[in-house]
Every structure is written in structure tokens, then in C-alpha cells.
Amino acid sequence: MGYSLFDTAIGTCAIAWTDRGIRRVALPDETPDATRSRMRRHLASAAEQTPPASVRSVVQAIVSLLEGTHVDLTDVVLDDDDVPALHRRVYAITRSIAPGHTLTYGAIAKQLGDARLAQTVGYALGRNPFPIIVPCHRVLAAHGALGGFSAPGGVDTKRRMLEIEGALEALPADLFS
To answer: Is residue 149 within 8 Å of residue 155, measured between CB atoms?
Structure first.
């Protein structure tokens, strides 16, 4: 298992991989060293190294997405063996949300077959080890409210990512006042 840091329009992110796929993505902390430390906490056995070509292509796609290019990351292979089955279902639905679009927690719950699972959807997305690839920032609370965001920077990071993708333009302006 390896990991690498990389610069994006929102700061220094990190990506970890195994021979089975992408294992983790980290959004930027306040400093690159803090991002590195967070990766080490989550993946103690991983070594920082130059990523293989397949991972470099994923990094380039993430960088492009965070520069405003609508990139499709649905074909990125994830190493999600240790992710609970219900979370994998939530992540699969979330991955289908195209850049510039959003869904609500409730809409994802309905796709799971039970509208009462909205909190469960939020719980799963709050533990998402693959942000950006599993675009949890595109999932909103009821009526389009931004809701929470557990990544560093919280809702400000979520708002910035949605701005880059052009998704905020489709939402009512009074949500941000």
C-alpha cells in the first residue's frame, strides 16, 4: 500500500492505493504535513511514494475536476473490501451524481428502497474514505440546504467544491444568506 500527496485548486490532497484499487482520498488539511499525518493515522502500513501510472491518471482527473472540468470518475476502481455493504450501496448511488448536479440524502435513501434511511445515508457519507471519487460534497440536505460536511474545512470546503463544479447556480440563492 502506498500514498502520495498532490496539489489541487483547493489545496494539497492525498491518495492511497493498493494493488486492488484506490484505498483512500484525503481532502486538504490546513497544511500538507497535517494531510500527511492524517493519511498515516488511517493507513499506518502505507508508505509515501511515487504513485504508479494508473494512480497518476486518477490524480490528474481529480486535479482537473477541482479546476472546473467535468470529469467522470465512475470508472475509478476502489479497494472497498473493508467498507460495509450498505455504505458501498450509498457510495455507488453517490458516484452516479454527475459534476454540477446534486441529490439529497433523502433521494439517495429512496433509491436504496427506504426513505427513512436518510440519516443512515448521512452517516455513511460522513465516513466516506474516497471523497471526490465518491462525491459526497454533491449530497445536500432537504430542500437543497448544504447540510454538514465532515472533511477539513467543513461546509466551506463543500461550498467551494460545488462552486467549482457549477452546482450552486442551480440552487436557490436564499440558501446562502
So the answer is: yes
| Residue-wise pLDDT tens digits, 6-41 | 999 999 999 999 999 999 999 999 999 999 999 999
By annotation, the residues acting in catalysis are 136
For the whole model, what pTM was predicted? 0.91
- Please calculate the CA angle 172-174-176 and round it to the nearest 5 degrees: 100
- The radius of gyration computed from the CA coordinates of the chain, to the nearest angstrom, equals 16
C-alpha distances in Å from residue 123, one per residue of 78, 90, 97, 136, 152: 20, 10, 18, 11, 17
Strands 11-18 and 2-8, sheet pairing:
antiparallel
Say which residue the cell 490524480 belongs to. Answer: 59
